[in-house]
Specification:
Number of strands: 16
Number of domains: 2
CATH architecture of the largest domain: 4-Layer Sandwich
CATH topology of the largest domain: Phosphatase 2c, domain 1
Shape: elongated
CATH class of the largest domain: Alpha Beta
Structural class: alpha+beta
Number of helices: 12
Length: 470
């Protein structure tokens, strides 16, 4: 009887130990998942920041103008009512170079109460804050961030002409050296700044330093040098956005290609994982050429990736994307998009397009099919006018191939001014339907290049080929 009781106790202890181990494992997985989601959010934030910043970086006469735009973007991102960017100058003094909202002078009370942001900024620019002086100077000297959940306890802020309820300030570093301080005042949603807002401000401080460096260099260059600087920045941005390799996705075999007509491209392709079974394949073509098209491409990609966590279906994604682009792009700027949603669990494809070229489907012993559901280009019209985006879903059968492409392929010109055309593309696709995606792309490019005979092309060329093998 004693032996039986002993084994019962052992069993209970073992059960409790295993239960605790399972709980710890689940907690660790949850922590890792949260970290991954946070990393994806931050990547989307950086992409969106860079694209919007580059879009507005045109003819900069004063650093403050671009710093004001940067301050506005960061404040909107973290949910602050006002924000100021302080830069450390050669005299080891901090001064304001960009501000949004009614940011209060923190170190000297003005002669009169200032309410308009431009007057406040003028007052802040005149301030020279030495290292160690006041909150801003202390943050720069100590290189340590501060978060005042209740700013009323800080005596140095009591005489501010604007009520300060909560405040956070973080140092901005460049190559291990303090470059300035980023300070946010008062929470848009009321109450104290949260730990998440504090973390977001610290994260964005590196991007603000990058923005300041770009404009500082840009303002010192000649016009030709500025163009070269823009192109180099755009190339780096575009290179960082395109996927390094096509993903392995169940029985789907994927290959992609993109070639700019100029130094940078308005075309792009992307692969975005929705969940463990679904992969979004995107090809888009921004109107225009060169840097403006490249920046519009970067915005489009950032908007797609930023909204992927709330993804429901391609129709809603297209509507949301149109809303974002219409809000943030200028007149007569638009993007054509085509999307395939691959589901490796049931081997299906959901397809939608927004003013883009048709989808081509090839299968052995069957004629090539062209699919072009309705859908207007994105960014030209508000969502309530743009209409719906038709969706087509089909099963991906054995030995089937699909081709997504931009119009730079079919509209490639030869010396006589004739276009390569869709019929020629269909013929090549049919002749190479048994080839691998990589071989198919190589053969299409070979035929297009032979047709063009060295003629300089005016449009970017992009393709994605997807095969299916059991």
């Amino acid at each position: 009887m004693q032996i039986d009781l002993f084994w019962v106790v052992v069993a209970i202890i073992l059960y409790l130990f295993l239960s605790a181990l399972v709980l710890l494992s689940r907690k660790k997985i949850s922590t890792l998942k949260a970290g991954l989601i946070d990393a994806l959010h931050k990547k989307a934030e950086v992409g969106n920041f860079l694209s919007l910043f580059s879009k507005n970086l045109q003819s900069v006469d004063e650093i403050q103008d671009s710093m004001r735009m940067t301050a506005h973007y960061v404040a909107d991102l973290i949910g602050a009512k006002s924000l100021c960017i302080f830069i450390l100058d050669e005299d080891e003094c901090l001064h304001a170079e960009g501000m949004t909202g009614a940011f209060p002078p923190l170190h000297s009370a003005p002669d009169r109460v200032l309410t308009k942001p431009r007057y406040l900024l003028e007052a802040l620019r005149k301030e020279k804050i030495r290292l160690g002086e006041g909150i801003i100077g202390k943050v720069a000297q100590s290189r340590e961030s501060i978060l005042l959940e209740d700013a009323s306890i800080e005596s140095t802020l009591a005489n501010s002409p604007i009520l300060i309820e909560t405040l956070m300030a973080v140092p901005m570093m460049r190559d291990g050296v303090v470059a300035g301080v980023l300070c946010a005042v008062n929470n848009h949603s009321g109450g104290a700044f949260t730990a998440e807002q504090f973390s977001a401000l610290r994260f964005m401080s590196d991007q603000v330093v990058l923005a300041h460096n770009l404009v500082r260099i840009y303002s010192k260059l000649t016009e030709q040098q500025r163009i070269a600087q823009e192109l180099d920045f755009a190339r780096q941005l575009q290179s960082s956005l395109l996927p390094d390799d096509a993903p392995k996705w169940g029985n789907f075999e994927i290959e992609a290609f993109s070639k700019p007509a100029k130094e940078v491209s308005g075309d792009f392709y992307d692969f975005v994982q929705i969940d463990e079974n679904r992969l979004l394949v995107v090809i888009a073509d921004a109107c225009g050429k060169g840097i403006p098209a490249c920046m519009l491409m970067a915005m489009t990609r950032s908007f797609i990736r930023a909204g992927i966590e709330r993804f429901t279906n391609l129709h809603d994604m297209m509507k949301d994307l149109n809303k974002d682009l219409f809000r943030d792009t200028g007149d007569e700027r638009f993007v054509t998009v085509t999307c395939c949603l691959l589901n490796k669990k049931d081997s299906t494809v959901e397809f939608a397009r927004a003013g883009h070229t048709e989808l081509l489907i090839s299968r052995k012993d069957h004629p090539i099919r062209t699919i072009f559901p309705d859908g207007a280009a994105l960014g030209l019209l508000p969502s309530e006018i743009v209409g719906n985006f038709d969706l087509i879903t089909f099963a991906f059968l054995s030995d089937m191939s699909i081709l997504l492409f931009s119009d730079g392929i079919t509209e490639a010109l030869n010396r006589a001014g004739n276009e390569f055309g869709l019929d020629a593309l269909l013929d090549i696709f049919k002749e190479n339907e048994s080839q691998s995606p990589k071989a198919l792309i190589e053969n299409i490019l070979k035929e297009v290049n032979e047709f063009a005979s060295g003629t300089v092309q005016a449009d970017d060329q992009t393709m994605v080929v997807i095969n299916y093998k059991n």
